[in-house]
Amino acid sequence: MRDLCRRYPMFNVDLVYLDPNEKFDSPVAHSTCIAGFVFQGNTVYNSLRNEEGDFLTPCNGGLFEISPKNKLYPMIVTAGDSGASWLCVSYKVEGTYEAQHVNVVSDYTLPAGWGFAVAQGEVTADGKTATQGLYFEPRAADIIVSGSADLIILR
Amino acid sequence: MADETANPKPTIGTEPVVEIYNSPESNIFVEIHNDVEPL
What we know:
- The complex is a heterodimer.
- Chain A is an all-beta fold.
- Chain A has no helices and 14 strands.
- Chain A starts with a strand and ends with a strand.
- A three-stranded antiparallel beta sheet of chain B has the order 1-2-3, with no helix packed on it.
- In chain B, a hairpin with a 4-residue loop joins strand 2 and strand 3.
């Protein structure tokens, strides 16, 4: 397991890579996780369950959102046959957060008050270039995001 | 005065790398960049 973690003032942004069939076992609940996006391979989170207690299995192109409905218990993650890679955003300041996945193919209008983390690809916005694993903080007005990328937008 | 150029803080790109956890026996490598400025 390789984890590249960037600690921002409000959030932590982690890029996590697992080898094929690798299992990662963390003894503590990742209760600060807001959402993640799997950009390669697939995972079996035998700790992530929905309200009904069903296990969730995020896969390539899938957003997993941690919420009162989907709770993350002490983490045991197993990668699929081709490994697994994902981006995870977690908060440092307790609060209520909202996250969505956005696939940018050319231009996208980021609403005022929303920031984003780049799961894969590269975009430019407000004169800055955001590459994989970087966090772009919210602006006071809508702005155009240009490029090609999978983003987790959040507020 | 200390010569700071003699022992520069390690960086990856322009970000300071403050913490690295490496556990080869458990195949875990964690690289933490602290105090990163948002874009």
